[in-house]
Design a protein that fits this description.
This protein is mostly helical and 206 residues long. The protein has a single domain, classed as Serine Threonine Protein Phosphatase 5, Tetratricopeptide repeat. 68% of the residues lie in helices and 3% in strands. It is globular. It binds adenosine-5'-diphosphate and magnesium ion (MG).
Length: 206
Amino acid sequence: MELNAAAIKQWMHHTNETIQENKEYLTDLDQKIGDGDHGINMARGFQAVADKLNEQDYDTVSDVLKDTAMTLMSKVGGASGPLFGTAFLRFSTAVKGQETINATDFAKGIREAAQGIMDRGKVQPEEKTLVDVWLPTAQYLEDASEFDAEAMKQTAKEAMEKTKDMVAAKGRAAYFKEKSAGHIDPGAASSYYLFAALAEILGEEG
Ligand code: ADP
Ligand code: MG
């Protein structure tokens, strides 16, 4: 597996399409255990990312990731903006200056991103947040003997589904205490869409 700047750009564009398609579903999830704006936040953020990345051609993967991070931080209201922004910024730093990244670089980037979310959100695993998708996905990528996009997508999907049974300990969902169980975490769902979108663009090529 080898991704260049154009491929990362394509990944972000397809993530945007997926988020726009699922905007209402994400908002529904956030209505159950939050304030009902997650779909709106993510749709605004990723549309801004798509617009920003269209403005220029990029030489490095890290520059695409950095502009993605900065745009999410500035355009997304709510907790998820700085969290997704930090994730992409850490990913960018992990592959700084690289024109292409391979499976090992990608795994390192997602691991750093997951750690960034934990630092920024002061969140631990199993507290029912987006990190419960990023961490298992990072682990899968590190353990896989060969990069398999479909298996990564499946890992992210199962991780998202597992958040359903968790009781939220961070963010607005924590106010719902035990009542937060029984619903998928909105940030986990949008994180799944991100990994699914990558698997989908790679599947089209292969
Ligand atoms: P807000 O909670 O401000 O309305 P969003 O609705 O856009 O923001 O995002 C909610 C998501 O953010 C949650 O589903 C959860 O995944 C994530 N989240 C909230 N607080 C934290 C935190 N402290 N650490 C990690 N993730 C968090
Ligand atoms: Mg919300």
